[in-house]
């Protein structure tokens, strides 16, 4: 679908621009010159379609049971247990978005030791893979998006990119590329190494025992209700919200920053995935800690700002506005409210679209209108 478009190549094309806090050379090192991208016509040319039946049955059974049992206990859920499940869900979500994604995978900011411990525990609460597997898969996903080497290649459809990829053996190209991706920084981090070593017991403790046990022990919640809501429903929603980034945010939405890639800007995904739905921006500027151009619908960003204030998170990297402007004018689909008008086929009327304007603030709207008039 797309030529090899990395943030680094854009960086090089926009002479004189650089990501704030990220030297051009450091950014350039993220380039993937030999990415094995294929065109859409090849999309089903794949021979390794073995289904892992154990995973498939487990995932399907888990979802069916969770829906049925949640409906069964839904009237018995107390306000306190409901609030607790939201809190646990947000903690697990932040472990994924602010932890394993923006910090460990992309190194978009630095975190102190206590912060990394907190992120690791939050991530364990989400009940996902080990930090090693998660980071490796996601680095490969960014480097080889929409190719055979992409673990959740969206060219193979919504279901595959959402959850189907977890039910099948990896494409040989995914394994080959994943085996050589640089993971030295993860292995050298003692906090990440601890989680990798004790992944399963940590998962049982943080994703099941504590979330289910707290309502039972502290305010006398019925064990079965707590188990279904915290151990099953909260877990199921958390997983699916994360998966939506790989599926929906690679299929539905506009592409103001680079029209040549599948990832798109998707507000709904951003709401449920705590700010990870601004996925067109994120794939163009993956080192940016915001994972979005603007702070809107980006809960992770606001939580990170809190930790920045107390000194637990620092050295935040972000794309400069001039770099964003340059890349957007060159590759965007024209839907960017401020720079989109640079594309001739996009009329200024786009600025009157409340959905688009909603993403801008104050004077920027008027400035953009004057500029395009
Ligand atoms: Zn993606
Ligand atoms: Zn990413």
Automatic annotation (TrEMBL):
Keyword set includes Lipid biosynthesis: yes
Cofactor entry: Fe(2+)
An annotated GO BP: unsaturated fatty acid biosynthetic process
Domain of life: Eukaryota
GO MF entries: iron ion binding; stearoyl-CoA 9-desaturase activity
Topology in membrane: Multi-pass membrane protein
Keywords: Fatty acid biosynthesis, Fatty acid metabolism, Iron, Lipid biosynthesis, Lipid metabolism, Membrane, Oxidoreductase, Transmembrane, Transmembrane helix
Location(s) in or outside the cell: Membrane
Record field: transmembrane: 51-74, 81-101, 200-218, 224-245
One Gene Ontology cellular component: endoplasmic reticulum membrane
Residues annotated as domain Fatty acid desaturase: 83-286
Protein family according to the UniProt entry: Belongs to the fatty acid desaturase type 1 family.
Domain notes: The histidine box domains are involved in binding the catalytic metal ions.
Protein known as: Fatty acid desaturase domain-containing protein
Organism: Gryllus longicercus
């Amino acid at each position: 679908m797309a030529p090899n478009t990395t943030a680094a190549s854009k960086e090089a094309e926009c002479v004189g621009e650089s990501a704030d806090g990220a030297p051009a050379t450091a950014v350039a090192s993220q380039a993937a010159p030999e990415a094995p991208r294929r065109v859409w016509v090849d999309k089903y040319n794949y021979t390794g379609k073995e289904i892992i039946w154990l995973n498939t049955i487990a995932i399907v059974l888990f979802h069916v049971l969770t829906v049925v049992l949640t409906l069964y206990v839904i009237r018995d859920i107390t306000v306190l247990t409901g609030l607790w499940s939201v809190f646990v869900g947000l903690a697990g979500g932040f472990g994924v978005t602010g932890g394993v994604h923006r910090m460990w995978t992309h190194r978009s900011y630095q975190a102190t030791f206590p912060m990394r411990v907190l992120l690791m525990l939050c991530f364990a609460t989400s009940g996902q893979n080990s930090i090693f597997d998660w980071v490796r898969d996601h680095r490969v996903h960014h480097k080889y998006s929409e190719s055979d080497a992409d673990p959740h290649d969206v060219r193979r459809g919504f279901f595959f990119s959402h959850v189907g990829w977890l039910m099948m053996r990896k494409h040989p190209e995914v394994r080959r590329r994943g085996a050589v991706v640089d993971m030295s920084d993860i292995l050298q981090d003692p906090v990440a190494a601890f989680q990798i070593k004790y992944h399963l017991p940590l998962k049982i403790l943080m994703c099941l025992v504590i979330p289910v046990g707290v309502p039972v022990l502290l305010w006398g919640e019925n064990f079965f209700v707590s188990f279904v809501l915290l151990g099953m429903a909260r877990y199921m929603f958390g997983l699916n919200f994360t998966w939506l980034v790989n599926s929906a945010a690679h299929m539905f939405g506009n592409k103001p920053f680079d029209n040549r890639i599948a990832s798109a800007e998707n507000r709904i995904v951003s709401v449920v995935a705590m700010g990870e739905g601004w996925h067109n921006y994120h794939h163009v500027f993956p080192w940016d800690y915001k994972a979005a151009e603007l702070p809107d619908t980006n809960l992770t960003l606001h939580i990170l700002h809190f930790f920045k204030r107390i000194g637990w998170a620092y050295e935040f990297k972000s794309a400069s506005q001039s770099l964003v402007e340059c890349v957007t004018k060159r590759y965007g689909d024209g839907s960017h409210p401020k720079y989109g008008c640079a594309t001739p086929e996009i009329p200024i009327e786009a600025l009157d679209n409340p959905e688009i304007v909603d993403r801008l603030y104050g004077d920027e709207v008027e400035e953009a209108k004057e500029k395009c008039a």
